[in-house]
Amino acid sequence: MTTAVDQQTNAYFDDTYLTETTATVIAAGTDEDGAWAAVSPNIFHPKGGGQPSDEGTLDGVAVTPARDDAGLVVLTGAPSAPEVGTAVVCRIDAELRRRHAALHTAGHILGHLGEARGWQHSGHSHFPGQARLDFDPAGHEDELATPEPRESVRAEFQAQMDAVLARGGAVSASVDATGHRTVTIEGVNAEPCGGTHVRSLSELAGVRILEVKVKRGAIKVRYEAEHADRAPAGGSAS
Ligand SMILES: [Zn+2]
Q1: What pLDDT shows up at residue 229?
Q2: Residue 189 C-alpha to ligand 1 middle, in angstroms?
Q3: CATH ID of 4-92, from 2.40.30.130, 3.30.390.10, 3.10.105.10, 2.60.40.10
Q4: Residues of 189-220 as b/e, b for ≥16 C-beta within 10 angstroms?
Q5: Which residues surround the ion ligand 1 when the cut-off is CB under 5 Å?
Q6: How far is CA 7 from the centre of its chain?
Q7: Which end of the chain has less neighbouring CB within 10 Å, N or C?
């Protein structure tokens, strides 16, 4: 039997800049949380992997995406569920999507730079205003015990980040036969990821390493990143 998950194409995997589309309702209903619908193609990134949810509308009504237990991206918040098979217009907040993609992509680079120091990546958040990479502090407590070395490491990260961005590189994603998605940043690394990313490192702007601190059992590297102002070449952003 074909399930709704099989029918759903998650367009955000392939195109970060697709922020408006017509889609077909492939499943819908009402439960204790209200009406819900799943559509395909789906442009809404649900919260996950440290990246916040997209914000957007279904036929002009604000909805919130979330991934259900089966892996289906469902949209909630509409006053009533649309009928399965109908066409609907989906839009997401393009500026927010770009911001999330910039923060997420910069996070990959920062994770790589930390691992290149021999640090073990232990967690991350790509939320605007609180983006950070966490690393296991084991063995590094002494070297980061006072403000001066922490600031030195911060400055090194900034210089290394600036060098990576100056070199540039394409960002691409591929999905293997078992459905696992790998995101590759040319000249940096490849890692499993289900988030949204810029297409090229030249689309990152204002990447700043804000602070290195050791707190609650983790080295926390706080950072900031924005999407470059211009629309990307070939983009479908509106
Ligand atoms: Zn990612």
Answers
A1: 86
A2: 11
A3: 2.40.30.130
A4: eeeebbbbbbbbbbbbeebebeebbeeeebbb
A5: 104, 183, 193, 195
A6: 23
A7: N
Phi/psi class of residue 141: alpha, beta or left (left: φ > 0; alpha: ψ in -120 to 50)?
Answer: alpha
pLDDT at 235: 47
Task: Please give the average pLDDT of every successive group of 10 residues along the chain, which has 238 residues.
Answer: 88 96 97 93 95 97 95 94 96 97 98 96 95 94 92 98 98 93 97 96 98 94 93 49
Cα of 19 vs centre of ligand 1, distance in Å, is: 18
> Domain map of the chain by residue range?
4-92, 96-236
CA of 23 to the centre of ligand 1 (A): 25
First to last CA, the chain: 37
